[in-house]
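User: Fold this; tokens only.

Assistant: Input:
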Amino acid sequence: MPQIRTLEATVAADTYPAIERTLIDGISGGESEPTVMQWTFDDDLFLELGPVEDAALIDRDRAEAHGVSYGRRYNVSGGTGFFRQDHTPVLYAFFPDRGEHTMAEYIDLAGEAMAGALRDAGVENATYRDGGDVELVPEDDGQLLKIGVSGAGYQDGVWGVFANVIYRSYGPDEFEIINDVMRLPKEKFEDKETDSVEGRMTSVTEVAPDLELAAVLDAATERLADIAGGTPEPGSFTEEEEAAVESHRQAFGDSEWFEHYSTTELIESAGPDDRVAEVAYKGRKLIKASVCVNADGTIDRMQFTGDMYHRPGFDTIDRLNEAVAGTELADDDALRAAVESVYQQEDVEIPWLPPEDFVQPLRRARDNLVPASEFSRE
């Protein structure tokens, strides 16, 4: 069976996406080996956006006031995350597409890998349900609590499949900072029994204080290596990969990268006769639609952002934005046809979200249009 290289690294806001980009480029070009990364973070607190989430979700002034680092992932789709040193170690497998599984199936496989490793270590009620959440099933009828996450990204013929575990929780002061800096839409919690990130989380140390984290990560690494098509074997970055990481760090540490999806920019660049709206909708995943509408009611520009999973890469969401632009905001049939035209493309996959979920926030936007000069998120 082929060997899958394993690497360990401590990463920062700019090295995380730089490593993603380096390994995807290298594996796509046949110059890098399939790899399972294990990494922790060198920050006291690091807040992270998914690749197509709105930059406005992080209040950068508040982040800087608290001394909090922040950044945007390059590959794995999905939503916001927050990390501190070894509180939430990440395992991340990179490997060429073999045509064996869909994105939804890879997310499920990664979630099952982490849940299975936790059960083997003694956390008997750890389970993977669906949608990317590894959860702790209560013995009574209480709320499911998140103890880990799985996800996937796909670019240039390369899968990036990841799983993490919430090993240590955060204190009240840290959650207060997270809630102060992250501007999560209220719709994100519509289907939850809580309205905060704190209320949905627990940690392995709370339910299994004697658990050995290394044993869980080793078992999960083996399972992820199997998903990647081989057995784990310790390795290291090549000199070429190290140079590529350093080359990419500058770009991914730049504000332009963080603003890659920014509804603030869309609204600020609206014309004097344009109206704008920003509306969130929660189906299985959160979708936000930000629109700039001409005087005749036609969508001039728009951005879908959110915590959805999508393949391939950024291009899927860019295609949706481009397909809907030029359509009358009041025309349900035209909006649905525009979204469905992207879904019908052979290489597109958006797990758990039907086309209607992208039409819904556009419908809501009709009642929220205001001149750009009057727009406010408060």
